[in-house]
Specification:
By secondary structure, the chain is an all-alpha fold. The chain has one domain: Growth Hormone, Chain: A. α1 runs parallel beside α7. The termini are far apart.
């Protein structure tokens, strides 16, 4: 049986959105190399560079719920186009920043305009497809994103050896090009049939309407469980490049090549693997993904060269392949369809919060306590997430039973 067969039935609009994402991700160079740009080109310490990345995370944290709410009100398409065009313009300006204060301000604005795209795109995917197509829809979007990421950072690694400024210019140009692709396309917003069908099958819809997002215990447990492991994943954009270049004496090109290995694996294996495990309970996939993350990043303790780092990257890439599509599908499943943007915005806010804490904590652990402490901590954090994620379905069932009891009475 062809594991890719479900993709050809997806709506045309989703393919346009995925093409937009592909174009944008092909130029993704500035953020992955931000730490190295700040330390090598701007002369900042590792701690201050990590703080700049934390500022980016704060901006993303502010944006996620706001963008989700705005998507429900003014339309996700408007949010996505605005995000791409504004991001492109800002990236052309970013290299002009000289002082630390200016870098902080531009980084914060960059995060706000750039990260608004994510919750809007996630809400759009759910709105465009039927519940049966949901996993295939997320898989296609991630396929496009990771195919782009297999190119962008790898090219960025070579550009960084020539000029760090070129990273920002290329990234900005592709963001504007992606916005142009999206602006040239039109589609109906939130097809009623898909939304109605999703509403009829959303297990927690009644619960969410009665209780509100912040008292939806199953959803909050899920977010809390995801936070530690997502913090670990963000080390590949913060402490990992420092570890590779400074401690293992590898080059920027080696770091860019890791991105290529990671994303090519996602492109090749994510759809087939998720098709093969589609019948698995959510808690099994989520817990397995978090466990593999701990093994992958924890094994960096024993890496002594590029071969060891690559082996570790293969393990945590399989963790990503299993964990993230399942997490997105689970979040969509328990969300109230009438507030899909808000729920996906809060879900994305968990990633933003992890981006606030993870890079700052990781770079400081590496700088003050060394690599063993850093990678050992990533193993512990992932184990905590795995234990909590193993109970998400149980928490969901508890809330469902409680609501059914209330309705029966």
């Amino acid at each position: 049986m062809n594991p890719w067969r479900g993709l050809n039935k997806l709506p045309r609009e989703l393919w346009i959105l995925s093409t937009t994402t592909l174009v944008n991700r092909v130029g993704t160079m500035a953020l992955p190399f931000l730490i190295l740009y700040l330390t090598q080109s701007r002369g900042l310490s590792a701690g201050r560079a990590g703080l700049v990345v934390t500022v980016y995370g704060l901006g993303a944290l502010v944006t996620a719920p706001l963008a989700g709410r705005l998507s429900d009100r003014v339309g996700a398409l408007v949010i996505m186009k605005s995000s791409l065009f504004l991001t492109g313009a800002l990236l052309f300006v970013f290299p002009l920043a000289r002082s630390l204060a200016a870098i902080f301000v531009l980084t914060f604005i960059w995060a706000i305009v750039s990260e608004a795209f994510r919750p809007a795109s996630m809400a759009t995917i759910v709105d465009l497809v039927t519940p049966e197509q949901r996993k295939a829809g997320f898989a296609l979007h991630r396929l496009a994103a990771n195919l782009g990421m297999s190119i962008g950072p790898a090219v960025g690694g070579f550009l960084a050896t020539l000029s760090f400024k070129a990273l920002f210019f290329v990234d900005g140009a592709t963001a504007i090009l992606a916005g142009t692709v999206l602006a040239a396309s039109r589609w109906p917003v939130a097809p009623a049939a898909a939304r109605a069908e999703a509403k009829s099958k959303a297990v927690a819809g009644v619960s969410n309407q009665r209780r509100g997002i912040l008292t939806d215990h199953a959803f909050l447990w899920f977010l809390a469980a995801m936070l530690p492991v997502v913090m670990v994943f963000f080390q590949y954009q913060s402490s990992m490049p420092l570890f590779l270049v400074r401690d293992l004496h590898l080059t920027e090109s080696h770091y860019g090549l890791l991105f290529t290995i990671n994303t090519l694996m996602v492109v090749l294996f994510e759809v087939p693997l998720n098709s093969a495990t589609a019948h698995w309970p959510h808690r099994l996939s989520l817990a397995l993904g978090a466990s593999l993350c701990g093994i992958g990043f924890g094994s960096m303790t024993f890496a002594r060269g590029f071969a060891g780092v690559t082996a570790a990257a293969v393990i945590w890439t399989f963790a990503e392949i299993i964990l993230f599509p399942c997490a997105a599908a689970y979040a969509a499943e328990i969300a109230d369809p009438e507030r899909r943007g808000q729920y996906m915005g809060i879900f994305q806010m968990t990633f933003s919060l992890a981006f606030v804490i993870g890079p700052w904590a990781g770079t400081n652990l590496l700088e003050h306590f060394g690599a063993r402490m850093l990678w050992g901590t990533t193993f512990i954090c992932s184990a905590v997430s795995a234990a909590m994620l193993a109970r998400v379905a149980l928490k969901h069932a508890e809330v469902k039973q409680e609501i059914e009891t209330e309705l029966a009475s």
